[in-house]
Amino acid sequence: MINLLILFLVMNQYHQKTSGWRSVGLQYHESLCQFIWEVLFKNKGVQPLLDGVLNYLPCPTEVENHALDQDKSEEKVLLSGSPNGPLVALAFKLEEGRFGQLTYLRIYEGVIKRGEFMFNINTGKRIKVPRLVRMHANEMEDIQEAHAGQIVAVFGVDCASGDTFTDGSVRYTMTSMNVPEPVMSLAVSPISKDSGAQFSKALNRFQKEDPTFRVGLDPESGQTIISGMGELHLDIYVERIRREYKVDAQTGRPRVNFREAITQRANFDYLHKKQTGGQGQYGRVCG
To answer: Which residues form the Translation elongation factor EFG/EF2 domain (predicted)?
Structure first.
């Protein structure tokens, strides 16, 4: 640890030698890093951070990425990171844009070309790439193709976050097909009835973005139930409903109907008498 600290100080003193930092980072990537302080709110340190990403972090061909082969019980497969290999791309972010759903893809291997077809391994659907763009903040640049190591966005692709796309020659996924079961549920509803449409739109979008976030309707209580991986997980989505869709929502525990079941035979003997004037009432039930 002392040797690593000395090495860190030496490399930090001569940080201009980016090739040295890159080789050190590859060798000690689990125990050595360079710190760059930044304040996003005031746009301080963002440029040095991005420069550091370019100068010090390894390129895609220097990192081992593994996919899961669905034809071999999710056996791990090492990806070469070469544009000459079969296409393997991961949808890691969804965004509602002016022209519909904008899907961000990270290309791990192969090439994506505008107008060509690719396969969604998670759904089995064959999809055409109608428009391919490179993002610059909130600006878009139309491109004809993108290679391994790049992050691009596509329009008109119906998918969920975490879906993997290939050219059809392989059935690789970058994430496991097994989604963990939710551990917590909440009942949620819009405070204003006029917000129902926006409320439903928000929940449908969040389900696509996050496979671990689930929405259901309790047929007995009529409540909308959201389920996720914990209290914080669900609180974040409730806050996003308010912030992004301007819908105030209230949450609570799901209602559970109380049921009774007959478990064993019982002896009973009941006598009913009622006399209030005139003809009285009399009855006896036993068993």
So the answer is: 254-286
